[in-house]
Amino acid sequence: MKKKPWSGRFGQETSSLVERFTESVSIDRRLAFHDIEGSIAHAEMLLAAGLLSEQEACAILEGLKEIGRDIESGTFVFDPSLEDVHMNIEVELTKRIGEAGKKLHTARSRNDQVAVDFRLFVRDRLAEVRASLKTFMAAVVQKAEDHVDTIIPGMTHLQHAQPVSLAHHLLAYFEMLVRDFERAGDAVRRLNVSPLGSAALAGTPHPIDRFMTAAALKFDEPGRNSIDGVSDRDFALEAAFCAALIMMHLSRLAEEIVIWSSQPFSWIVLPDAFCTGSSIMPQKKNPDAAELVRGKTGGVYGNLVALLTMMKALPLAYNRDMQEDKAPVMESLDTVLMCLEVMTGLVQGLQVNREALERSLKAGFITATDVADYLVEKGVPFREAHRITGEIVSSLVSEGGTFEDMSSEDFRKFSDAFGPDIVSVIRPESSVDRRRSYGGTARKNVKTMLEDAHARVESLDV
Ligand code: ARG
């Protein structure tokens, strides 16, 4: 067991139970490279401020880089009795370079150190999330491109409502993803303030240059309040929220994929490579990947609630409770990244079953609104048109027929306003193409929106 850097005022060794209970290096070792990056910026600033000699700074920088290489190659051994990643690296540095290593922590506390490391980590991970979102968005737009002419029953209450182009349906997800992408960018903008130099909570008497370290770490500026610097975890919460909202969107799509690929629907066929079988039922091909995206959403929401709750009653400034912030954020971001990848594969690989869709479009009187709108165009008040169409539907339900079974004369039995053109109005294609209002599902509109979507994906800066 190595001697703790803070052991000066202690008369007893830490109990091994407490060591196991308080250690965080099993989790925060993932911050190692960011910790080294922060320490390099800090050491360079200490040199510029005259707090380190040239020789000391050189030794520190070399030592830190060497430790970084060892961590990368997997030869560095993290010791849980040294609590966290910060003390593991600092103790090792001193072991390697001697006295100079002991000066690195001048004008710094683990409280501002961990705040820097975690911000850098979250900033990098959110950049990865944005890149994955962009890839997924491109896949969604591509699938939409292939299916402008594929018409599906649009649903409300999971009941047939009005026909829509499948491209239009997919582009609804595209809009959610654009917002997710922008939201992650907004989160990074607010995150990008440097806490380094806040020290324990009150700042430091040493002549440090916080603007220099902020710039070196590519933060926009140093934070204006040292207490906020060490006690703020909004950036972690915002990242957890971004993850939760992305998962909610993915989960809705996953749910549709599960339903649409089920036998009663059979609208889509999933790629075998993205499905799994049953150990007992030989015929089974289950949409497990989509189900797990849906299932993992709960855990990602849970992480957000865990963080909010962990923070809610903490007095300023740093409290050890805050060590519990890393696992949920790391897990949420890992999950979201994997789910984005899985959903990209699912969307790319799914095939549409046109016959099943055509069959489905015949059920549920999906063009009933078009029949009512037709009557309105012929001068019938909408409420009256609604009632007449309802009566037609009701009589077809009792006879077991569909609009397609009716001739224009059959329609005229319900209202004189019907002309011969009614039989084309009830076709799903014409229903779709008549909805030319801005943002509506007419194929002409959808094609314009697709061009727009392509350009939007291209312009996303990750
Ligand atoms: N491992 C700690 C954390 O993650 C680092 C900060 C510890 N500071 C302290 N005063 N004990 O929060």
Descriptive notes:
It is a single chain. The model has no long low-confidence stretch (mean pLDDT 96). The protein has 19 helices and six strands. It is mostly helical. The strands form three sheets. Strands 1-2 form a two-stranded antiparallel ribbon. A two-stranded parallel ribbon has the order 3-4. It binds arginine. Arginine binds at residues 24, 28, 84, 110-111, 114, 318, 320, 322-323.
What is shown here, in short?
Helices cover 61% and strands 5% of the residues. With 462 residues, the protein is mainly α.
Spatial order of the strands in the main sheet?
1-2
Mean pLDDT: 96
Please give the largest β-sheet. Answer: 2 strands, antiparallel
CATH topology of the largest domain: Fumarase C, Chain A, domain 2
Architecture of the largest domain, CATH level 2? Up-down Bundle
The CATH homologous superfamily of the largest domain is called Fumarase/aspartase (Central domain)
Counted beta strands = 6
- Residue windows where pLDDT falls under 50 for at least 5 positions: none
**Shape, principal axes of CA atoms:** elongated
Overall tally of domains: 3
Measured as a percent range, the helix fraction is 55-70%
Strand residues, percent: under 5%
Spatial extent as radius of gyration: 31 Å
**Oligomer category:** single chain
Small molecules bound in the structure, each named once: arginine
Total of DSSP H or I helical runs spanning 4+ residues = 19
Given this structure, which CATH class of the largest domain is correct? Mainly Alpha
